[in-house]
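Minutes, project check-in
Item: structure for the 107-residue chain
Input as provided by the requester:
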Amino acid sequence: MTRFNKPSSSASKSRRPRASNPRSGHWLLQDAKARFSELVRRVRSEGPQHVTVHGRDEVVVITAEEFRRLKGQVTGRALIAAMQASPHREIDIEPKRGPLPVREVLP
């Protein structure tokens, strides 16, 4: 005889309800994976979208343009500007170069 176990009422109460609400810009990870194309469309139309794992914000999906704006260009311009604004910019910091040893060439 096969015995069927009913899930206990306490087991069903311990599960969290699905709190995915893409309209508010918050997605459960499994929903974001299953509906990734929609997530990308909403990022473009509505702005950043939060993806949660175990009820905590883990990542925020943003457009590539917004990412570039936030990251900034790494050009070294800030360092050059700081060095040019220094009151000690006339100091020669070029390293002294000495002769390097030469090894013999074997035939």
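Outcome recorded: Residues 16-84 form a domain with the YefM-like fold fold (CATH 3.40.1620.10).
No further action items on this chain.
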